[in-house]
Amino acid sequence: MVVMSPSHSTGPHPDDAVTRPPSPSRVPLEHRELWTKAAVGANTYDFDSGRVTPTIYERTTAAALRHDALNLGQGFTDHEGPQWMLETAAAAITDPRRGPGNQYPPGPGLPVLREAVAEDQRRRWDIDLDPASEVLVTTGATEGITAAILAFAAPGTQVLTFEPHYDSYGAVTAIAGAELVGVPLRGPDFRPDVDALEAAVTERTSLILLNTPHNPTGTVFSTEELRRVVDIAQRHDLRIMCDGVYEQLVFDDAAEPHHPILSVPGADEVAVAIGSAGKSFSLTGWKVGWVMGRAELVNQVLGIKQFLSFCSGPAYQWAVAAGLQDDRGFYAENVAGLQAGRDMLHSGLEAAGLRPNRAEAGYFVVADVRGLTDVGDVEFCRMLVEEVGVAAIPVSSLTVQHRANPQDELQNLVRFAFCKRHETIEAAMDRLAERLPAALDRLA
Ligand SMILES: Cc1ncc(COP(=O)(O)O)c(C=O)c1O
User: Fold this and answer.
1) Rounded CA gap, 291 and 297, in Å?
2) How far does the centroid of ligand 1 lie from the alpha carbon of residue 258, in Å?
3) CA 45 to ligand 1 center in whole angstroms
4) Which of 27, 223, 304, 439 sits 20 to 30 Å CA-CA off 332?
5) To the nearest whole percent, how much of the chain has pLDDT over 90?
6) Ligand 1 within 6 A of 276 CB?
7) For the residues of 7-27, what is the DSSP string, one character each?
């Protein structure tokens, strides 16, 4: 077995799976096996070879390594999380007296972590959760998202989400046998158009997937926007899965602070919320996440989750519980560093002639390439990594529906990550200033 790590991963060029036109196949897509549908749903199916490609994030990282580019693509930090949390996890592994040991923890998660999640929600947002029945620990948010979609999206139904979106939503909706319907978030502000969301509801709709703070736009949904989505779900008898993995990364100039979905009155009737330690503590490789909500809904998600991974590493759960109980100032320090990185990236991109948004939260800004060039995001990212030495993600690869229309503005947006060391961002912006004009000339 080959273990892929960012420094050893290989794979096709970032645009391998997104530039080539689909070649005709003898078997219509709807009759192909599930793996094909999952890969098509996440834009990781290469129609020419009939093979699955790595995700856009891995392909971009591989391309960055190949071209010795600065990687503003994949959303992982290039610094570690709090040292004391690393030590807490390490001690839990090596000394069973200082942790839960190394055997299977309970499937729904270590009680100490479920209690810490419930206490954290109560302290920060006055949300009341029973740790025993209303918090379910998962292997990263990704497993919680998967279990929630499989639990709530019946085959043949439609699942609504705002596009662009996190790529697993498309894959898992396809695995569920449901259809993902995307409602675009439009620049320059990327606010959710809740009327358009409601207009997209049909008698086949089962589930709405929300993500706030949003990847990749950094939009923090307002209470009013969330309240209206909850109202739609209640009136049309839909479920909501709300992915909040960036909830600890909201900047002080956001129009409103983050509001978790479960803080909206009545939301618990229809919604489950997803959290994760990965972004909150800059420990993305730990993969500790959780699902929260009313006991009946969490129990339905458990029905799927306990046959995905069953459980995940007890030492990481143990250390995350300690982090949630007391972050020792890490959140504030982390957000301040990220906000400074965002500002640095924003002004560098603007100086290079791109039109970046001012993300309210998270790890990314989204920049419009129109005005600089007529080529789309995929070609722009290819040029950027190969000729400028900076890797970024074409936003069209985070869409399903809007990829079909080459004229759509979601084909002109590029995602840049600022969750990197400030010297990395600075060096990347220097490369843009020095090399982009000539690279653009060659592109013309
Ligand atoms: C919106 C969103 N949801 C979920 C995840 C995955 O979270 P985890 O690493 O906890 O599985 C990510 C990671 O980039 C993300 O951006």
Assistant:
1) 10
2) 17
3) 21
4) 223
5) 86
6) yes
7) TT---S-TTHHHHSPPPP-SS
The atom of ligand 1 lying closest to the CA of 278 is 10
pLDDT of residue 32: 81
Q: Residue 117 in contact with residue 292, Cβ under 8 Å?
A: yes
Q: Per the structure block, which two tokens stand in for 50?
A: 């009939």
Q: Which domains does the chain have, with CATH numbers?
A: 16-80+331-443 (3.90.1150.10), 83-325 (3.40.640.10)
User: Tens of pLDDT along 195-216?
Assistant: 999 999 999 999 999 999 999 9
With a 6 A CB cut-off, is 141 part of the ligand 1 pocket? Answer: yes
140 lines ligand 1 (CB under 6 A): yes
287 lines ligand 1 (CB under 6 A): yes
317 pocket-lining for ligand 1 (C-beta < 6 Å):
no
What tokens appear for 376 in the block?
């789309």
Instruction: List, in order, residues 6 or more apart from 193 with CB less than 8 Å away.
Output: 183, 184, 185, 186
Place of tokens 């990185």: 341
Say how far apart CA 201 and CA 159 lie, in whole Å: 9
**Ligand 1 mean position to 288 CA, how many Å?**
10
Share the mean pLDDT of the chain.
Answer: 92
Report CA(28)–ligand 1 centroid distance (Å): 32
At 114 the pLDDT is 98
pLDDT single digits (tens) 48-68: 899 999 999 999 999 999 999
- Closest C-alpha to 366, from 358, 312, 374: 358
Taking 80 as the threshold, does the pLDDT of residue 414 lie above it? yes
